[in-house]
Amino acid sequence: MSTLANAPYHHGNLRQALLEAALIILDREGEAGLGLRDLARAVGVSAAAPYRHFDSRAALLEALAVTGFQRFAATMEAVAATNPVDPMSAMGKTYVFFALENANLFRLMFSPQLKKEGRPGLKMAADAAFETLRHIVGGDIRAGRIKALAAWAKVHGLAILLLDGQIAVRAGEDTEALIAEIIGSL
Amino acid sequence: MSTLANAPYHHGNLRQALLEAALIILDREGEAGLGLRDLARAVGVSAAAPYRHFDSRAALLEALAVTGFQRFAATMEAVAATNPVDPMSAMGKTYVFFALENANLFRLMFSPQLKKEGRPGLKMAADAAFETLRHIVGGDIRAGRIKALAAWAKVHGLAILLLDGQIAVRAGEDTEALIAEIIGSL
DNA sequence: ACCTGAACACCGTTCAAGT
DNA sequence: ACCTGAACACCGTTCAAGT
Predict the structure, then answer these.
(1) CATH number belonging to domain B1-55
(2) Residues of chain B with C-beta less than 8 angstroms from the C-beta of A184
(3) A116 pLDDT exceeds 50?
């Protein structure tokens, strides 16, 4: 614990401080609410300072999305490691829970705008995460490509629709139970 | 056909002209590329002029999304009217095709940012469109809520993943056939 | 090596003023 | 009634200058 709350940033690891603050702002406000100037203000630094560590706003967003894919892959591996009876369904539920618990980060990970920027780090992180998924699933079930894609579509769609509030969860209804029912057995 | 290409706007239906130009820009550039000032320039009018017809940029986007939901509902009704042998699958395919053919409009229709604005017109248009869907499906198959939600999730997820280029369509592979395979029989 | 201050070229939005 | 011109409070980004 340092003596002054904002002292460490001025000469310490500004990059890390920016990423941590950005993750919090992203979580609360969404991507559109995450301005570079706001971020600099939040961290107590000049508007130009972030440019020492990130080429552009897109580069900062990319870094966030990359950590998102890493967390995502780690979460999926953790479930697989528990050797669930129905691995596909367990992973499907985890996929949806991850999306709900990291709503704005999940959206950023799949943001078409960011993808259009063509940043290589994002594609690499996404590919690595899905490679991990394929590895886990492939070792267990020889589902075939079509079945795998169908399962992915179902799970991803459920995540997005819940995230966007399109699927109305009824009063007194358990979201977790609803997800389990919809996923059924993949 | 008027004598001068940009003459009608100066005293005609600017609102309509803005919407038409906006739809084209949205289609090409995506929501982020659709600036009010750009739009005004494209239509040959001052930067302040659009405010006579739309409260804000969000109001303009809402109007676009609303026409998107209307087109969507009309498209779905058109398929249902052909009395396909497997109505659910036929509608599922149409849902995905609509998303692919109207990529940026579809994204705008489900934009969380726009939804967060809480504009009532958007919710009404979306509700009306899904009510139409429910009506078509409900009359045909008494699927039950869970099955209906599962089908929706699968179709919506497939649309989003294809739109975002996450599902790799292989060289020489027919996208249409791949969609049909993944949807299978709903 | 890392950060600041001031500037540049933009935004969305408002408002008095024009026709 | 509808549109313009000029302004306001912002952005992201750059760059010389400071330490």
Answers:
(1) 1.10.10
(2) 150
(3) yes
